[in-house]
Amino acid sequence: MVIFSMSQKFTNSTLSGILEIDKLKNVDMPIENANGLPNECYTNADYLDYEREKIFCNKWIVIGVASSIPNPGDARPYNLLGIPLILVRDKDRGIKVFHNVCSHRGFKLIDKPCTLKNVIRCPYHSWSYDFKGNLIATPHIGGLNNHQSEKFDKNKSNLKEVKSKVWMDIIFVNINSNEIEFDDYIKPLEDRWSSFINKDDQKLIVHSNDYGYFNLDVNCNWKFAIENYCESYHLPTIHPELNKVSNINDHYHIQGLPNRFAGQGSKKYEQPVKGNKKFETFPNWDKTKLKNSEYIALFPNVMIGLHIDHFYVYWLEPLAMDKTREHMQMYYIGNESANGEELKELRKENSRFWKDVMIEDIKAIEGMQEGRNSPVYNGGNFSPVMDQPTHQFHKWVATNLL
Length: 402
Ligand code: FES
Ligand SMILES: [Fe+2]
Fold this sequence. Notes:
This protein is of the alpha+beta class. It has helices at residues 12-16, 21-27, 40-43, 45-57, 182-192, 199-202, 222-229, 235-238, 240-245, 335-339, 344-371, 388-401; strands spanning 61-65, 74-80, 83-89, 95-99, 114-115, 120-121, 128-129, 135-137, 163-167, 170-174, 205-207, 213-218, 251-256, 261-266, 293-298, 302-306, 310-320, 323-333. The chain folds into 2 domains: 63-164, 3-layer Sandwich (Rieske Iron-sulfur Protein); 183-401, Naphthalene 1,2-dioxygenase Alpha Subunit, Chain A, domain 1 (Alpha-Beta Complex). 27% of the residues lie in helices and 24% in strands. Helix 7 packs antiparallel against helix 12 (388-401). The longest helix is centred in the last third of the chain and has 28 residues, at 344-371. The radius of gyration is 23 Å and the shape is globular.
């Protein structure tokens, strides 16, 4: 299967029609002189088209998790800001991502999650593709009961596959197939985390089936969720309860280089406990950092939380300029912790804990969206001390737009 690569739709000259390029260049100044991204990046519909190309098609982005399609034939559609995609679990249990469009007359193949028997069959004229995307049946293509045509070469009409990679259950795609290989892309983060989890330990995570998923719809641009996640500055005001157990001083900044992730860590993580029951822990976690937990935004659209006893993936589905669906996926170490009856109540509490935190954040991120309608706001100024990881994200966006 040949990975399909779209040609670039937009150029920098289009961007200059949307916003002042100098404002973007200002983002990449030393933090004490920098401004944040300009308002247009959060409010302008033409900008969203541009961003779809430069950020969501050119970069490695997240469109779901593999455990949401666990069995061969399981398939889900995904709408990437208007681009229709399909995620499929192959017969050999791998994950495939295709453009969700029939090669015949362009019918959208799948419109809701389903389990396919053997093929992806187009509802319009029943052309059928196997799970590798090969066109294998073209009923009546040569007239009634004539399923072949000499004038038609099936091999040229396979589904268009998207470059994809599953890492820690997260499904990444690179629509334009122009990024560096994923293994190289993720290496700086894996290196950073090697004292917590090695490559074998990564395989220990198991998605929880009962309290392993929730989603939240928020009325704001997706970028605000990332910006907010990168900093612990808002702890005392937005999360007063959390701040009592782990305050600003218990946190440290994380700035991933080369610039592709940022966030914060805590030195005061306490494992949840009920009676004498606790979750299983990662076996090779650094014994000098048992209370460390790390909260990293891997740009553009996924926030991950790593703790000695659980892992979560909080990924963003941009729906519109000011609408985002946040998907929370939770994992534990081994099946007993993830799905065993004994720890069910503890999982319920842990899920509730995180949901409460994420809900507290909504007022912060929606408030920034409303503020961005102000004509006098210039992108703002950063705290030179507290906003470094957030500034790093703004720089990443600005650089990729230019
Ligand atoms: S459009 Fe799919 S078979 Fe005709
Ligand atoms: Fe927060």
